């Protein structure tokens, strides 16, 4: 992130006063001809300067032999010459004082070793001169409000993207044009489009950061195949969140197969996809899994007010559709709270035959008392119990005439509640759709798609608030001395020093020492044989549990050591370990993982072999605030259910686990340069307190 | 299911020669007027007989005072009189010899107790006279090939559903009309539409059974809110599978919230949704989760050939889109096998710069060598390695002119491989879409939606084959004597008699008996204190593990009983239990669950508390064939991972678990009338063999 340069250089990608096309062709269908043709065709009002060594005129415009020959200032250059000439062209641009050059030429790092070297030479020019570049292997940019179109993508041939408030920034040009066409076909307008290609210099994050300030942009759609600058992405997302602009993010390669294909395609190894997911959420953004999901969500924000939260009411002409929508809400982030008793009584007063609460089934009978519908809508929204209302209006929208009364009802409520989201589900006639959307009402044909889109949009309110909350309330941990071998005992001691709940354990050489240690620890205690040669303690009778007094400890010492000597005659017996009884609790894994792009991350999940096999873990970026730790262990689906009360068993001590997460985060901060990983598996979380039963610290290899 | 009557009565729902409308009105916008108006408007060629006691003519047709007055035969009657007059009307229909009456009137079981009684009286007439009814509270039927439209749904006003090969059978009329409108807007034609309402008599299953034989129908879309006749549904699904017709099934109320809403709406308690899921899959059908998913899948079968399997090849003009499609394939049922080495070499010979294997990224560069594309398509399909091919053609489809060469390539390959599925992804111009679909090529705008639809369609091939496989290779189990109390020991004995792997355990009163028992069991053995008064055996030193010979057994007997007497002085000590060492293995839950609608089901999943909390279990209907048992434990996501090899640990003995499932199935068959449930939790599945460590049998309450 080069914040001081951002404004001018990135602005020049979209809104230059003048643009040079280096490698311009007289043939408007050729690669070098298209940017000139598009710029003319779109009606770009700034200066267009073709640059072509061999021609004095290109497509009716004066052409220059060299970018340095151009008389006026040049904000942007589009470079479409063969890869071996790009370096020279870029040097010319730098000398001319061009702010940003879009290198559309391919044959760089994406191609081969020679290309990688060529790309590195471009970056040397960037570093030397301060010029900025997109690409190489970029697809250029389009800015409908500026009637600017600098690309050779045929997707822009004939189809002018309408100006609007949705921005699309992608690494891949094909991904971008697929996205923008789906957005345009959905009836949405676009503010800025750019495809950043190899991202040698300008990366997606920097563009997002610019768009956060861009008055033309309300919603940001982004798609990447890889990310190199984790902190840059974090900062850009937070900036957009602070500006109140939703970022809808796609990163491909989430699946095992997709990751393999992405590695083939980009040459980059996929990091842990869950870490990426976490960083997106922490930034207050939404990770979309398909282009359609991205477009649906962009639609919600582009057309209506941003939802203030995830609470929605369903009003349905059909009970079955209402139930299906409730099914679709599961896991979507949408909440469908039942009406309060008071609200329910008022709704029932208005329409006595309405069934259920949320979904509210007004039944097909409502046809005879249609005029009650706007009263119900108003009552639901005025209650303050909902952030959004979804209206299933059957097939009424197919005919503008038949829909006329509904249109009246919906617009009436729209005017009364400008800050609430209103979504209508009906197969809408284009006129109906236009009238609703112009008033800021969402229109969907498929009920489940509205539910999922609103679930995502409603979740974003909370995610943004969390992203902008207290950045960190981290404490400090002592720096660990890693000069000694990191045995389990040593690892536990270091974690105990950092405040983690490691139970006191004592190594005792004789029965009296064991009894004294047990007195100190408090009863009941457990006892394990202490021997460097015995791996499976149970098999030699080497474990005694639940010892209730000193006498039992002394007896057990003799029994255990005798048994071990008899059953493992060759083993060295050093005595026993005395420890408090672990007791009953949930076995949780708590660890520190060092991501190559995003740095240290805390992870927590179901402990034991299940955890590893099912991969059910949550991540959070270090430093982890107390609030973030609480969100990690909050009730929900997945592993955190292990902490819930269950069949009369009390709930586990979430606060103790939250505390442990915070202390591990402090440990990670204090030892960022020397620790690569920590794994406590399990940490036993009891109904009161927690205990680290096993621990491993992996030092950073020098 | 009344198979002998199915043909004529259900046929009369869609293709009657004559129809009476009882309660016909002269006003074509009223409930009673609409069916007459629609029938006339749609051009129904059969006889239309309005029945209205007060009028001699209705909408230009001769009207009758009573259905019995009609001169000719009447195949179908549509009843739209108020609920209190339906009984009388139905009796008239029965006397007239009407085959089926569609009772559209509401005010029956869906309303209140009096309505329930009214519905029961209708069923008495059905049982007495043999007349069949749909509804009450039905929405009628539409059959475009017959130009027949007997409904009062305004959805059919003005919009005539085009004739085609997709049938829609739903309980809820609103659900049905939402579905059929989405199907029609997708450009598909419809064969039959019916909404069965309360299903007092004719239920969804019976209609599916009819549609399986219906030559007009190729794809069956069904949606229910409840199901009462589990075996009827099973038989209908199997019949459709045998006819090679895909059934796409929705049942709402899958989520917790949805189930609650459904209970409010239908008054029926939701059964276990996973059981429903299982029955649908076992019937070779697909459970859709949204109407859009249902429509997408219907589209695949309505437009192109049915996929022969789930193996698909992706050819993409964009690497990023290919990777995203691979992501979307995860969990969709679609398989994306890499090209064989030989195939890969051939593809590379054709296009040397193509990257990857599957997805195959032909890159935007292919534009200069477009004519290689059909060669690649042909090579991929001719290899026999794929059942389907998906072509991401960027935005080329927006212009018929630009798409012309692609259209040629695709149609060429379509002609060469008529049995393969070909899907094109592009935002298609209507002309482009029409040309492709008419040739049997699928067209999608969103890449992920094609992937998911083909995943479902491709899975159906395997599901159908499984559904039609060997019905059962069940063995026999002895009938259990349940006259004695069903203690754990007794339950284990009964299950052992049925062939389940219950380890031999011996109750021994003295050390010598214990040693003899251990000799018989084989070493090593475990020993547990035997006392009705001691619940926590560990706490009294009451357990000894891994005893390797008779001497160790004798010593342990003394140690254990001494320890227990000392630490639990008031407990009655009966001796010890000697058992083989359980060893290391996966703890699995294996059980029998009796579903109120679908009968006995075997369940298997992760054992212990995780299983219950995470609900990660698989079901299968009893009797379970060996093949079905193998599918239950087959490698995949979820709990069966516990059976996989993992980090050098050997795989668990799946065959032993399969055997146990089959034996439990036999036990369930032999004891169907007297056993309500069985739970073995856990059955320990080792690298060789399995052992039931705990067992519970719940007898059927009389």
Automatic annotation (TrEMBL), chains A, B:
Record-linked Pfam families: ATP-grasp_5 (PF13549), CoA_binding_2 (PF13380), Succ_CoA_lig (PF13607)
Every ATP-grasp domain range: 492-528
Domain of life of the source: Bacteria
Keyword check for Transferase: no
Record's keyword annotation contains RNA-binding: no
UniProt entry keywords in alphabetical sequence: ATP-binding, Nucleotide-binding, Tricarboxylic acid cycle
Signal peptide: none
InterPro entries assigned to the protein according to its UniProt record, in alphabetical order: ATP-grasp (IPR011761), ATP_grasp_subdomain_1 (IPR013815), CoA-bd (IPR003781), NAD(P)-bd_dom_sf (IPR036291), Succ_CoA_lig_flav_dom (IPR032875), Succinyl-CoA_synth-like (IPR016102)
Matches recorded under SUPFAM superfamilies: Glutathione synthetase ATP-binding domain-like (SSF56059), NAD(P)-binding Rossmann-fold domains (SSF51735), Succinyl-CoA synthetase domains (SSF52210)
GO molecular function: ATP binding; metal ion binding
Any GO BP: tricarboxylic acid cycle
Family: In the N-terminal section; belongs to the acetate CoA ligase alpha subunit family.
Name of the protein in its database record: ATP-grasp domain-containing protein
Source organism of this protein record: Pseudooceanicola nanhaiensis
């Amino acid at each position: 992130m080069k914040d001081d340069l951002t404004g001018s250089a990135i602005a020049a990608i979209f809104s230059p006063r003048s643009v040079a096309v280096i490698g311009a062709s007289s043939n408007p269908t050729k690669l070098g001809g298209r940017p000139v043709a598009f710029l003319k065709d779109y009606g770009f009002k700034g200066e267009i300067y073709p640059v072509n060594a061999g021609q004095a005129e290109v497509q009716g415009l004066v052409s220059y032999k060299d970018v340095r020959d151009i008389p006026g200032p040049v904000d942007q250059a589009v470079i479409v010459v063969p890869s071996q000439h790009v370096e020279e062209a870029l040097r010319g641009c730098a000398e001319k004082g061009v702010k940003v050059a879009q290198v559309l030429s391919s044959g760089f790092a994406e191609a081969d070793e020679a290309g990688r070297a060529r790309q590195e030479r471009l970056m040397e020019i960037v570093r030397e001169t301060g010029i900025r570049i997109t690409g190489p292997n970029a697809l250029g940019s389009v800015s409908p409000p500026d009637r600017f179109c600098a690309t050779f993508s045929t997707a822009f041939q004939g189809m002018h993207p309408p100006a609007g408030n949705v921005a699309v920034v992608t690494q891949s040009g094909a991904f971008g044009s697929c996205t923008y066409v789906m957005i345009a076909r959905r009836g949405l307008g676009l503010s800025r489009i750019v495809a950043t290609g190899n991202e040698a210099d300008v990366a997606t994050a920097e563009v997002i950061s610019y768009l956060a300030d861009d008055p033309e942009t309300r919603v940001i759609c982004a798609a990447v195949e890889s990310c190199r600058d984790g902190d840059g992405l974090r900062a850009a997302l937070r900036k957009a969140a602070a500006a109140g602009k939703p970022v809808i993010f796609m990163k491909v390669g989430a699946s095992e197969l997709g990751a393999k294909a992405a590695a083939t395609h980009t040459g980059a190894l996929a990091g842990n996809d869950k870490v990426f997911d976490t960083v997106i959420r922490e930034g207050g953004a939404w990770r979309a899994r398909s282009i359609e999901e991205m477009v649906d969500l962009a639609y919600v924000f582009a057309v209506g007010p941003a939802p203030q939260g995830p609470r929605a009411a369903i009003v349905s002409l059909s009970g079955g559709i209402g139930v299906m929508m409730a099914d679709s809400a599961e896991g979507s982030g949408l909440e469908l709270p039942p009406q309060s008793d008071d609200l329910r009584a008022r709704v029932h007063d208005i329409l006595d035959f309405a069934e259920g609460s949320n979904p509210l089934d007004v039944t097909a009978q409502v046809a005879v008392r249609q005029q009650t519908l706007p009263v119900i809508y108003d009552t639901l929204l005025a209650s303050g119990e909902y952030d959004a209302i979804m209206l299933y209006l059957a097939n009424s929208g197919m005919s503008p005439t038949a829909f006329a009364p509904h249109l009246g009802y919906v617009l009436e409520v729209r005017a009364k509640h400008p800050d609430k989201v209103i979504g209508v589900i009906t197969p809408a006639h284009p006129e109906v759709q236009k009238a609703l959307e112009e008033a800021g009402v969402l229109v969907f044909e498929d009920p489940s798609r509205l539910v999922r889109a609103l679930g995502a949009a409603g979740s974003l309110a909370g995610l943004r608030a969390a992203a902008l909350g207290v950045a960190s309330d981290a404490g400090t941990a002592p720096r660990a001395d890693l000069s000694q071998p990191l045995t389990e005992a040593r690892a536990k001691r270091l974690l105990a020093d950092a405040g983690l709940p490691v139970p006191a354990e004592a190594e005792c050489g004789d029965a009296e020492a064991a009894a004294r240690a047990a007195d100190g620890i408090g009863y009941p205690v457990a006892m394990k044989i202490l021997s460097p040669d015995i791996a499976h303690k149970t098999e030699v009778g080497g474990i005694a549990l639940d010892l209730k007094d000193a006498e039992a400890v002394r007896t057990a010492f003799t029994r255990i050591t005798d048994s071990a000597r008899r059953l493992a005659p060759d083993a060295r017996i050093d005595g026993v370990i005395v420890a408090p009884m672990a007791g009953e609790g949930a076995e949780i894994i708590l660890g520190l993982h060092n991501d190559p792009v995003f740095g240290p991350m805390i992870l927590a999940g179901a402990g034991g072999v299940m955890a590893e096999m099912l991969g059910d873990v949550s991540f959070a970026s270090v430093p982890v605030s107390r609030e973030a730790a609480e969100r990690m262990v909050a009730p929900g689906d997945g592993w955190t259910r292990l902490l819930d009360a269950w069949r009369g068993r009390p709930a586990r001590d979430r606060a103790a686990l939250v505390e442990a997460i915070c202390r591990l985060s402090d440990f990670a901060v204090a030892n960022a340069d020397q620790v690569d990983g920590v794994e406590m598996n399990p940490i036993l979380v009891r109904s009161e307190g927690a205990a680290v039963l096993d621990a491993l610290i992996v030092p950073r290899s020098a």
